[in-house]
Amino acid sequence: MAQDLSEKDILKMEVEQLKKEVKNTREPISKTGKNIKDFVETQAANDPLLKGVPEDKNPFKEKGGCMIS
């Protein structure tokens, strides 16, 4: 698509995108970083990657073993 546009058209699109982006509200990383850290710490008890999945609740655990007779 970009090959079909002139350099002027591409620059217009970039300016329009920048106009949209400048309207976004921004938060300092010092504030958002703390919020993310607090959220992760409060959710850690429910995270199966951190605490593991109980054997009886694991849907991927093999139900039976292989039996050779």
Automatic annotation (TrEMBL):
Function comment: Guanine nucleotide-binding proteins (G proteins) are involved as a modulator or transducer in various transmembrane signaling systems. The beta and gamma chains are required for the GTPase activity, for replacement of GDP by GTP, and for G protein-effector interaction.
Subunit structure and binding partners: G proteins are composed of 3 units; alpha, beta and gamma.
InterPro entries for the chain: G-protein_gamma, G-protein_gamma-like_dom, GGL_sf
Record-level GO cellular component terms: heterotrimeric G-protein complex
Protein's recorded name: Guanine nucleotide-binding protein subunit gamma
GO biological process, one term: G protein-coupled receptor signaling pathway
Source organism: Tupaia chinensis
Biased composition (Basic and acidic residues): 53-69
Domain G protein gamma: 1-69
GO molecular function: G-protein beta-subunit binding
Topology within the bilayer: Lipid-anchor
Domain of life: Eukaryota
Span list, region Disordered: 47-69
Family (UniProt): Belongs to the G protein gamma family.
SMART domains: G_gamma, GGL
Pfam families in UniProt: G-gamma
Localization of this protein: Cell membrane
Keyword entries, A-Z: Cell membrane, Lipoprotein, Membrane, Methylation, Prenylation, Transducer
